[in-house]
Design a protein that fits this description.
This protein has a single domain, classed as Nucleotidyltransferase, domain 5 (2-Layer Sandwich). The strands form two sheets. A five-stranded mixed β-sheet has the order 3-2-1-4-5, sandwiched between helices. Strands 6-7 form a two-stranded antiparallel ribbon. The longest helix is centred in the C-terminal third of the chain and has 24 residues. It is an alpha/beta fold. It has five helices and seven strands, in the order βββαβαβααββα. The chain starts with a strand and ends with a helix. Helix 1 runs parallel beside helix 2 and helix 4 crosses helix 5. 44% of the residues lie in helices and 21% in strands.
């Protein structure tokens, strides 16, 4: 039975999904946009539906799943107690759904450890945000690995950027899922090599 590696970046607005094949080569990235879904349970149902579609697409495969660990502490200006609690609860629900649908216990991966595993250095003094730096790293990594991927884009309809093509916000979540998936594979390889 072939292995399929899945990386998940979970948030209550967009869930990023990255898929690598049994050769540990990139296959695809997907996302679930939950920004317009208010109900917690409806969000969960949409996630489950997307996971079921992945299982159908890769039928007769054994799934190995990595999930970005939820935040453990406050980050100034970014995370309120309510936000952390909501995200933690949703992360737990999606992790459970992942276990149920993919029939495997997920591996939880710290985002900073994942970036370190892959040699992604975040320049805190850069004008680019951390999300932009990770996104750019993933775009470059795909080029290095000779993988083509059509990132979702949108044409700006108003403002100073009217008519300009920009990447959709989901690209950041898919990039984070890509990093989690590659880190999952890296750590599994390290475990095998150390035995």
């Amino acid at each position: 039975m072939e292995k399929i590696y899945i990386g998940l970046d979970i948030s209550t607005s967009i869930v990023g999904i990255s898929i690598f094949d049994y050769n540990k080569k990139f296959k695809d990235m997907k996302y679930v946009n939950l920004t317009k879904v208010k109900c917690f349970f409806e969000k969960s149902l949409q996630i489950k539906q997307k996971f079921l579609e992945v299982v159908e697409e890769y039928s007769n495969c054994k799934f190995i799943v990595g999930i970005e660990e939820n935040l453990q502490a406050f980050r100034p200006g970014l995370s309120s107690a309510k936000t952390l609690m909501t995200l933690s609860r949703f992360n737990g629900v999606v992790s459970y759904i992942s276990n149920e649908v993919f029939k495997t216990i997920p591996v939880f991966i710290n985002v900073n450890s994942a970036r370190k595993d892959l040699g992604i250095k975040i320049d805190r003094k850069s004008a680019d945000s951390t999300k932009d730096q990770v996104f750019n790293w993933v775009k470059n990594d795909l080029i290095i690995e000779n993988n083509a991927f059509n990132w979702p884009t949108k044409v700006m309809k108003s403002g100073k950027n009217k008519g300009r093509v920009k990447f959709e916000n989901c690209c950041y979540d898919m990039s984070d899922a890509y990093v989690i998936c590659k880190s999952l594979i890296y750590n599994l390889d390290q475990h095998v090599n150390n035995q």
